[in-house]
Amino acid sequence: MQIHEFSGEELEDVASEFFMPAIARARPDYRGRVAFQELDAALALTQWRHRGQVSVVRTDRMAARASADDLMLFSVCMAGQSRVRQHDRFVDLAPGAGVLNDTRSRYEWGSSTETRSLTLLFSRELLPIRTTEITDCCARSMDTAAPAMHMLSSYLNRLSEVADDLTGHQRRNAGRAAVDLLAMTLQDVTPSVPGADDSAGVLLDVMRTHIRKHLADPELRVEELARQHHISVRHAYTLFERIGTTPGAYLREQRLLAARTMLSNPRYARLAISSIGAAVGFLDLSTFERAFRRQYGTTPAGWRREHLHHSGPLP
């Protein structure tokens, strides 16, 4: 285990080394401590302690330059209070609460109290959940009273205590077991809709599923979505407020996520950028490129050059 104590002036360098590249700001009296335990390739557990007001921002441009490992972060607040923002959703973290975040989207974290947390860093491919569902789970509040969340929090805490005494093979298995526990815990988060067992929550689930299945339909707009589900546009907005977004923003986010996945897949390497845009509902190339740049800080072509890795012969 590597342990490092640092000041506010060193925070950005420490975050880049043990967490992810970000812009960090801290008060002059800030003091931090990180304990880093590597469990496997692209799998690690870190303990963080922050004393003093601090904020961390990972910009869209930084996120667009994320590594091919596509790292995910799962953090458990052990003490103090903090706030996380991603995908235009806010989560207030109190002791026992956990939150999932990805490194390929803008991320904000801040705290004005002394905080202590555990963060599991791992490759997205280790999480046996579809990409769209993972994104839905990011920046969602996890019920601290849920048995699965309590078990996961206890497991990570215990793993951080004994990891140094494990063999390399045992650390690898223990780390992957933590990711499996996280997948089980996320079942309580998806669809992460307050009151999801009532009719409104069920309807929202149906509408979100409809959006993901019909991304290629350029006529799919808020008005059409409301009409097909026999509700008013105003009611559609009210439903999506439950997950901290709007129907239009959710549709745009899902389209861009689908486009990003296609641009990173060798299977679609010969497909024109305009065709990929059309496949997810953007008939106008300039509109697609503008929306993609605004979301990820680069053009679709730039993303493809940066992230496309050929794993075999192209079809």
From TrEMBL:
<dbReference type="Pfam" id="PF14525">
    <property type="entry name" value="AraC_binding_2"/>
</dbReference>
<keyword id="KW-0805">Transcription regulation</keyword>
<dbReference type="InterPro" id="IPR050204">
    <property type="entry name" value="AraC_XylS_family_regulators"/>
</dbReference>
<dbReference type="InterPro" id="IPR020449">
    <property type="entry name" value="Tscrpt_reg_AraC-type_HTH"/>
</dbReference>
<dbReference type="InterPro" id="IPR018060">
    <property type="entry name" value="HTH_AraC"/>
</dbReference>
<feature type="domain" description="HTH araC/xylS-type">
    <location>
        <begin position="205"/>
        <end position="306"/>
    </location>
</feature>
<dbReference type="InterPro" id="IPR009057">
    <property type="entry name" value="Homeodomain-like_sf"/>
</dbReference>
<dbReference type="InterPro" id="IPR035418">
    <property type="entry name" value="AraC-bd_2"/>
</dbReference>
<protein>
    <submittedName>
        <fullName>Helix-turn-helix domain-containing protein</fullName>
    </submittedName>
</protein>
<dbReference type="InterPro" id="IPR018062">
    <property type="entry name" value="HTH_AraC-typ_CS"/>
</dbReference>
<dbReference type="Pfam" id="PF12833">
    <property type="entry name" value="HTH_18"/>
</dbReference>
<keyword id="KW-0238">DNA-binding</keyword>
<keyword id="KW-0804">Transcription</keyword>
